[in-house]
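fold-stage: in
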Amino acid sequence: MVGFAAACLGVCLAMLSSAVLAAEGSISGYLVDAAGERKAIEHVVVFVADAKTGYPLLQDSQKTLSPGLDASLQKGLEGFRHAITSPDGSFLLKNIPAGEWRLVAQEWIGADHVPSPKEEDRILQLHGVVNHVVVRDNEVTEVRIEPLGDKPAVLENDPQEGNTYVFLSAKAPFAEPIFGPLGWGDSFRSHIIGITHQSKPPLMVRGLPDTEVFVSVLNYDNNPGIGGTSFVPGKSWKQTVPIYASWSNGYYTPPERLLPLVDYLDQTPGGMEKLVEDNKDLFPGDLKNPNNLRQLYDQLESLKEKTIEVPGLGKQQILDVLAARSYGELRKYHLKRKAAAKQP
């Protein structure tokens, strides 16, 4: 693929490493409504994730998924540790490693389980989150889960492709959508409020807060698609989520704010190479070398506060420069492909 998207997903899937966790306890809880009154709702799924990193606890082990997205994600979300509420809205999570966790509660309307990717899409109803749940050895931690809000939204992919995982968070990724999961960071992951698989668009979500929500999507096609957007629920009903991909119908228009950078790199021969040469302390070497590029991706979050001087554009965030490079490569690929298709 045009570079970044495929390499990005490949890094994410290859970087899986887990820490074995020891002492265990339990989490007992129930759902409440906005007034704090107990809700008797069954079949609500309650996921468990690390409070700091946001990585989920795995269903069949005492390990967390870390630091990327395991290839097993293609098998579905049932591989993540969860409990399902009983008719009175209560749940019990047993054998949770001691430590600090967070809970994410949601249901797929009409389903009594976590749907597999092969099942039909359902409305995603969010029921709230609980942060900083402390689990101690041989103790039961009691919690209650309050709703985040009651706002609905419909998410439309552009292009309208399915086989996509959708992640909803209360915090923004630290980098542009073109970086995919590598640009999410702990803040985005540890504030996720909902996650689902989407067989085909659109996706209906209910129970959203009235504050800004950040969406990231990951399509696991042979040539992956990655994208995202943000919106404030209640201000508009439908939201479009661009999916950047090398597919023939893949989205490739760079964000408007980065167009000057994209155009500079596209129109300046050796522009990126010169920036790398002038900032050797920030780059591992020639980015045309896959090993150097991977090394850079591995340390992406450490670059989020760093800037470099770009001729004619002044100081620019290095992450924006790297994103502009990737957006530009993708745009160039699509334009070249379209031009070739017009040839007799």
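fold-stage: in (second)
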Amino acid sequence: MKMNNKILALVLFVLLAILFLRKYMVKPETRSFRTVLVEVDTSAVDKIIIHPKKSNSSFDLVRSESGWTVSDGGKTYPATSQSVMAIMTIVNSLPPQQLVSRSKEKWTEYEVDENGTRVELFSGAQQLDDFYVGRFNFDQMKRSATSYLRKASEDDIYAVDGFLSMTFDQDINGFRNKKLAQGLTKDNLNNIQFNGPETQISFNQTNGLWERSDGITVDSSKMANYLTAMLNKVGGTPAAGISQMGGTPVESLTFNNGAVSFSIYANPNKEGEFLINSNKVEDLIFESNETGLYKTLISDLLQAVE
């Protein structure tokens, strides 16, 4: 009987020891980090709010039946499909490389606090996701980049592949459609008018042939090359601090009786250079020397019709 009691006591002790170890010594297996950081149904996304890095302002990308627009609350402009698709490609499924830190004290170091770029995704009034894109590192040896990201509602900082800041860390102009001759095609273009200080000339197209206003037929190949370059031209970085030009332009170029027009001004800050505005890219002025945008629009035209 005493032996049975000893056995029972030993069994009880072993059971209690097992329970103790399971409760206090053996931690349950947990994943060290998410397998996917951002994953949304991109077909449902109809608004993206971007808070640029180190800025108190924000702007919205909004989808409508006619396409995407970008707005800063004051004005609304057409957005480029490429810039929106770049975002959608990322948020469709963004896996992490690794968990970098769980500490809020590291937010500033990796720029995933107010010094980072905040991105909010919406479907109607429902917020689908909210995250911060921070700084990136570039590995010269591997020729690869690592960016840092944090979900807005979490402390964890993750490393992800790629230059995410190149997609998200832009001002509103980085998402605007800066194609200078929007709406024009070779098929619908039939009239060109150039006005300069010494030359005023127009060109009209009939049945595929271009003629100058003095009746001379223009070389078809040269005109086709000019139109291809002009129609595909996209404005580069806007002139800093200039959104409106006053006074009379030194030259002007119009297509289809003003449907698309360019105004060319002398650049007061750079001798021999120009400031160029397109009526299709509102509130942006582009700088150019004689070999840049000015050449594509003006010099190449005059050379093509000599």
